[in-house]
Design goal:
The chain is of the alpha/beta class. The chain is built from four helices and 15 strands. The longest helix is centred in the C-terminal third of the chain and has 42 residues.
Length: 273
């Protein structure tokens, strides 16, 4: 009795497995053609489609024309003669029938030119692409270090069709225009004109410059070579020296005017004697 009971589960497993294989063979077939070797599932259709994977009669994965891969409901319906395209997502398509060598990824993604890659529905401004982040906040949100190479012979970065950043033959960056932003008024040099500003006598400034071969509060040439300097900082410091020079010049002008008046009175007194 024990031996017979132990054999029943094995017999049940054997027949259930055989039934599954027979059932699967009526639902799925491996279709091999000279161009494609794919798996098709018959669900509500009588003849398996040798170029598509269908669910409930709707083509989900299609291999059509010449080396086009189309994944998604109604994807690639407009591409009739184009080649070597990859369209992933429902209603992903080309805008013309002859699009070639292009990629469109995402629902309703549309590609209009050859040799292009399109991410997402171009009509949806809320789409964001993230690299290194699962929650992108911008159209392109990159978390981490970004190394960018633009061009090989004459690399440049264009914004709105204009050269924004370029690299010359000597490896120097060429910038067409840029704006520097400061976070606090104290970072600028207007403090020089405040009454509390400790303007050093010109004699001390000259003594310092002769001894150190650079102006006070300005890094030496060797410091610049060793450490470099922030462009915001150096511009502010240079303006500081220009404003100090303006004050020195204004004071010298006052002294010169006073000397001229004194000289005028002395000459007048001498002429009256």
């Amino acid at each position: 009795m024990e031996t017979i009971l132990n054999q029943k589960p094995m017999k049940f497993y054997f027949f259930s497995t055989l039934f599954s294989l027979i059932l699967f063979s009526t639902v799925a077939q491996i279709i091999e053609t000279p161009a494609n070797s794919i798996l098709t599932v018959k669900s509500g259709i009588t003849i398996p489609d040798t170029s598509s994977y269908r669910i409930n009669g709707a083509a989900i994965l299609k291999l059509k024309n010449s080396s086009n891969i189309l994944l998604g409901l109604n994807s690639g319906n407009t591409i009739l003669t184009g080649q070597n395209n990859v369209l992933l997502g429902s209603n992903s398509n080309g805008t013309t029938s002859a699009i070639t060598n292009s990629v469109a990824i995402g629902s309703n993604a549309k590609v209009a030119i050859n040799n292009a890659i399109i991410l997402g529905d171009t009509a949806n401004n809320a789409i964001k692409v993230g690299i290194g982040t699962a929650s992108p906040a911008y159209r392109l949100d990159v978390k981490g270090v970004v190394n960018m190479r633009i061009g090989l012979n004459s690399p440049s970065l264009k914004i709105n069709g204009r050269d924004f950043l370029a690299l010359d033959s000597e490896g120097s960056f060429l910038v067409s225009n840029f704006r520097i932003k400061y976070d606090h008024p104290n970072q600028w040099s207007d403090k020089v004109f405040e009454k509390s500003y400790p303007l050093a006598p010109i004699e001390e400034v000259m003594a310092f410059a002769i001894k150190n071969r650079h102006l006070p509060n300005i890094p030496s040439a060797q410091e610049i070579v060793d450490k470099g300097i922030d462009i915001n900082t150096i511009i502010s410091k240079l303006l500081e020296k220009v404003e100090e020079l303006t004050i020195y010049t204004a004071k010298q002008n006052e002294e010169m005017q006073a000397l001229r008046k004194r000289l005028y009175h002395l000459e007048k007194e001498n002429s009256e004697k």
